[in-house]
Automatic annotation (TrEMBL):
One Gene Ontology molecular-function label: hydrolase activity, hydrolyzing O-glycosyl compounds
UniProt record, GO biological process: carbohydrate metabolic process
Active site: 210 (proton donor)
Protein name: Beta-xylosidase
Pfam families documented for this protein: Glyco_hydro_39
Start and end residues of each Glycosyl hydrolases family 39 N-terminal catalytic domain: 34-530
Signal sequence annotation: 1-27
InterPro entries: GH, GH39_cat, Glyco_hydro_39, Glycosyl_Hydrolase_39
Family assignment from sequence similarity: Belongs to the glycosyl hydrolase 39 family.
UniProt keywords, alphabetically: Glycosidase, Hydrolase, Signal
Organism: Spirosoma terrae
Length: 568
């Protein structure tokens, strides 16, 4: 038996090395990391900034695994989840492909008159609405009949191809801004007729995606002009609709900051291309922020600091406009890196995606987004995780997705944890190895980032604890001692949820099966069960002493725990 276990251990180590995850057997410090939570120190409401998701390929929405995953996402949240997808106005027959989607919403007849067809757009939005979700209605990209440079139009990109090959005729400005505005107007009116005014008022309408890079083949001024025409059309159709932009990526880049500020300057002081008046409607502000993983000595090294600096710069830019500072901000894409469809087999720095590094990164980074927004005094509404699923691909190929072939990956369980955190955010003592400032400036390259995010509701409290490091090395677990003060009553029920190598981890179960690419029905059922959020131990009653409870436990590297205590 011992010999068998030894062989299994060595086999696991070999697998981890092949996947860019190395074992470092050095013991961690014997002194537990002390995390102090005070339920009496209110830090304002817990905003569900995590309840926002998006993806490039809109036609996956209503396919078999797309519908299944959207159902899973909708169930994990007590608030409506918002969903953002590209290519909602792209010309085509609706065939799904990587980095591609189409709806054929707009074509023209032989006389050049508009022909509107909302069948596929409705199919996408119906899928959301049926699950209690809401669209971030992205107005883009350019229909072939309206493009100022329509050919070539359809691309056939695949992982390993030149990424710039995707920027074809759909990325160009319209040859007729008035016709484009009419398309937008008709889309909003149709949505009201189909879903009702009250429902559409709850959506967010936005123009385009990353217009500061290849997604927009026009100038900054041409984007601004298109925004004026678009905002006017949306407001004519529904004056109470919410319209926003500009969805620039990388605010910390000089060229991106210039684009961002040019847009906001126009919103505040520019001459409107449609009305001739000063300014243009803006109900919310959007930008993107990404990290930058790489391989170092054969292992994956993340760079959370890069992403947080982008976020912070975006907040700084917004805060510099007094009349815009309090507008809601949606980080339209907020991820560890930039290309969801760039698979691990061709991009080995993406080996973090299948396992627990993605989940621990997500836990640690989302907590710091709250801190950055508070420090800048801005109104962070949501942060879109740009990850969904890729239909009919190899199992665990290493796309940035939430599920593979209908089986949930570990990262989705972090969002299940966040979905359980309600009420008021409460204080976590910041005398640990890292706070948001240190992670922003240095990322996590020395000690591990063992920290927490905590909340209190009327009858319960939740504490999310993570053990994160930028280097994907498997080391000995760390001892953690969570002290929760301000606990009412004499006893509480503890439920301890865990994501690590053993719990809430379909990937490790799949590898233990021998990494089958054609799993049996029985194996798929086992994987589906392993993909759900699991308890580390059975629920137990804990005695409250002097208003406090002490919860010691061991937390593996890249592991995440959710401690939920409830009282009568």
């Amino acid at each position: 038996m011992l010999r068998s276990l030894t062989k299994q251990f060595l086999f696991c180590l070999l697998l981890l090395c092949c996947l860019g995850l190395r074992f470092d057997g050095r013991a961690q410090t014997a002194s537990p990391v002390a995390i102090q939570v005070d339920l009496t120190k209110d830090k304002g409401p817990v905003r569900p900034i995590w309840a926002w998701f998006g993806y490039d390929e809109p036609n996956y929405t209503y396919m078999k695994d797309g519908q299944k995953l959207l159902t899973e996402i909708s169930k994990l949240s007590r608030v409506p989840v918002f969903v953002r997808a590209h290519s909602l106005l792209v010309t085509g027959d609706g065939t799904a492909a990587l980095k591609w989607g189409s709806t054929n919403a707009y074509t023209e007849d032989a006389q050049g008159k508009p022909v509107y067809n909302w069948t596929i757009v409705d199919k996408i939005f119906d899928t959301y609405i049926e699950r209690g979700m809401k669209p971030i209605a992205q107005i883009g990209f350019m229909p072939e009949a309206l493009s100022s440079k329509p050919q070539p139009y359809r691309h056939y990109w695949k992982p390993g191809d030149n990424y710039n090959d995707i920027y074809t005729g759909w990325a160009y400005p319209p040859k007729d801004y008035t016709k484009f505005a009419s398309l937008v107007y008709e889309w909003v009116k149709h949505s009201i007729a189909r879903y009702g005014k009250q429902e559409v008022e709850s959506w967010y309408w936005e123009l385009w995606n990353e217009p500061n890079i290849g997604y927009w083949k026009g100038t900054t001024e041409e984007y601004i002009k298109l925004y004026d025409y678009t905002a006017d059309a949306v407001k004519r159709a529904l004056p109470t609709a919410k319209i926003g932009g500009p969805e620039v990526t990388g605010p910390n880049w000089d060229v991106s900051e210039k684009f961002f500020r040019s847009f906001l300057d126009h919103v505040v002081n520019g001459k409107n291309y449609v009305t001739g008046k000063v300014g243009t409607p803006l109900d919310f502000i959007t930008f993107h922020a990404k990290g930058a993983p790489k391989l170092v000595d054969g292992i994956v090294q993340m760079n959370m600091g890069t992403q947080l600096r982008d976020i912070d710069k975006g907040f700084e830019i917004v805060a510099s406009y007094p009349t815009l500072k309090k507008l809601p901000i949606i980080i339209g894409e907020s991820d560890p890196e930039g290309c969801a469809a760039c698979s691990e087999d061709l991009h080995p720095q993406n080996a973090y995606r299948n396992g627990t590094m993605y989940s621990s990164y997500t836990a640690a980074s989302f907590a710091r987004k709250h801190d950055l927004a508070s420090a800048r005094g801005v109104n962070l509404l949501g942060a879109v995780t740009w990850a969904f699923e890729f239909e009919d691909q190899a199992w665990f190929r290493g796309f940035r997705d939430l599920a593979t072939n209908g089986v949930d990956k570990p990262v989705l369980n972090v969002f299940r944890m966040f979905g359980m955190m309600q009420g008021k955010r409460v204080d976590v003592a910041q005398n640990l190895a890292y706070d948001y400032r240190k992670v922003r400036e240095q990322s996590v390259r020395g000690e591990p980032d063992i920290n927490a995010f905590a909340a209190k509701d009327e009858k319960e409290a939740t504490v999310m604890v993570w053990n994160y490091h930028d280097d994907n090395k498997l080391v000995a677990p760390s001892s953690v001692a969570v002290q929760i003060a301000g606990v009412p009553g004499k006893r509480v029920l503890l439920q301890h949820y865990r994501i690590d190598q053993q719990f809430s981890n379909s990937y490790e179960v799949w590898k233990a099966m021998g990494s089958p690419q054609k799993p049996t029905a029985e194996q798929i059922a086992t994987l589906e069960k392993a993909g759900q959020l699991q308890l580390l131990t059975s629920p137990e009653w804990i005695t409250v002493k002097d208003g406090s409870v002490s919860l010691p436990f061991s937390l593996p590297r890249q592991g995440v725990s959710l401690l939920k205590i409830s009282w009568e």
